Amino acid sequence: MLSALAVGVAAALEAAVGEPPTRYHPVAWFGSLVAPLDQEWRSDAHAFAAGGLGALVLPLFAALAVGASVALAETLSPMAGALAAGLALFLTTSLRELLVAARSVVADSETDPEAARDGLLALVGRDAAGLSPGLLRSAAVESAAENLADGLVASLGAFVLGAALAPLAGLPALPVAAAVAAWVKAVNTMDSMLGYRSKRVGTPAARLDDAVMWLPARASALLLAVAFADPRSLVRARGWLSRVSSPNSGWPMGAVAAALDARLEKPGVYLLNASADLPDRTAAQRGVRGVGRAGLLAYALGGVLAWF
């Protein structure tokens, strides 16, 4: 019951606050620990070794810090522990700000493409300078779909799983659940900062993130299929996976592309639903709304599973 309360606290904070300012956000603090790894190393071997050590130590440090904080709160009262765990879960997830940014890009894509290109920087790292309005909308929808998995389902699922399994091992549920959610978020943050082909130091984090995100990506695609009331979208998405280099992101993006019957494209990198047109404004808005519904479903399902 306390685990379900923690999920409810996280959902309420997400709805009310969105995200705290960057300078007060623990994920940003964690990023400052990762940043020193992003440098020129003497060789690829040195870079890989440093990245491997970082991928092992830094997420573990984050997990221990968060788990210890929740355990300390639990010494005050079970309710204090639940509130601390809910706060920890809130800080390791993100949905509202993602949806706001995606909606803004879609809204500006026709009337003010330059503003849309600037807004896209909050969602993706790609060069937006030459993107057409259709490609800008595609990027916004792609990012919303992919980040449903990265930003919400992964940490939320880890929290619920940790809360369920910890008592079986004789461990306290809430500290373990919060620690596992923090570990997943830390791995994903390292991949976001370092996981580029040009950065050998990021290879260990990228491979670890691929493994961690395997189930959340597929669970997110299922949530999207339910949110769009289109179960066939999963079958169609599966047929496009070979066109995406990531072993995971093709699932949620493909599910949305199928549900919207729209082409989602990152020029020169991947193309989903190639026979369809790029999303118009109406389709893109529907896509972002669908991701929002899927996020609400994730919170609701997480709360129900945590209750039992």
Please specify the SSE layout and strand pairing:
Elements lengths: L1 H15 L9 H9 L9 H33 L1 H14 L4 H16 L1 H8 L12 H33 L7 H22 L8 H10 L1 H14 L4 H7 L11 H11 L3 E3 L3 E3 L8 H27 L1
Helix pairs in contact: 1-4, 1-13, 2-8, 3-4, 3-8, 3-9, 4-8, 5-6, 5-7, 5-13, 6-7, 7-8, 7-10, 7-12, 7-13, 8-9, 10-12, 10-13, 11-12, 12-13
Tally of DSSP β-strands: 2
Structural class computed from helices and strand pairing? mainly alpha
The helix content, as a percent range, equals: over 70%
Question: What about the largest sheet?
Answer: 2 strands, antiparallel
Amino- and carboxy-terminal Cα gap: 7 Å
- Order of strands in the sheet with most strands: 1-2
What letter string, H or E per element, gives the SSE order? HHHHHHHHHHHHEEH
Averaged pLDDT, please? 95
Q: What would you report as the Rg, rounded to the nearest angstrom?
A: 19 Å
Low-confidence stretches: none
- Give the overall shape: globular
Integer tally of domains:
1
Number of helical elements: 13
